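U., I forgot to send this yesterday:
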Amino acid sequence: MTSYSFPAPLRTAAAAAVVSGISLIEPRRLGPWSRAAYRIGVAGVSGLLTADTTTEEEALLSPSLDGVLTGAATLGLMDLGEHLDGALVDLMRRRGISRPRLVLAGIGAAGTLALYALEARRSAGQVEGEDSFSQESDEEDRELPAPARDLVALLLAEPEDGEDLPGAPALRAQLLLARTHGPAEEASEVWLTVPETAERAVPRHQTWPVRGTFTQRGYRFQLELQIDDGMLSMLSVFPDGAEQDPELDEAALEHLWRPDFSLPSAAEVEIMRETAAP
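Result:
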């Protein structure tokens, strides 16, 4: 559909008023110059209605070019159109309708309103379809990005000195099969999907007791891994408020939502392990 600066309700009302006004004109009473102007006006309105109610997907060429073709075709068929118009007016008078032009004006306005209502409904359906497709795309599993996979592997890595954490072997096995879902543009939250047949980690519900910290654009952040029902669930990034004031925390949070934020490489992350020490 061709886009105009006027709101849709105003365009609809204006189009209905113009069609109604043209329908009130009796072309058989017009002189040569008036009839020429009338025909050009009818052709122009036909072309504008076509351009304004045709979408890019439905257009033969484009909404604007389709409008030009419709206007040209209407102008070329005006002799036939005026003949049919006159015959219809005469028939209505014979049937007892005293003001046939007024009836035709009402029919023209109603038809124009119906045309715009159909176009609005069709457009609303397309938007709903796009939203539905976007939602389905968010819910579909995708390949887990390499930076996210490397960070999860870093948090789950067996320590060089000390005992491996409970459930870590099962989670490392899950990582080999893990994929991601959810909004792809949210780099600060990576939702993880693991096949239901994978071995579960125990405890089944926990925040993994190994975290990572890193600095980006002068802000300090933490990496955190969530385990849900024994499965890898989410890798999250959030401001590390341990050494920052509230204003810096707020600025760091804003940075997380900017397009220039990205997950760090594993080499940029410092590992922090929870211990029983007070």
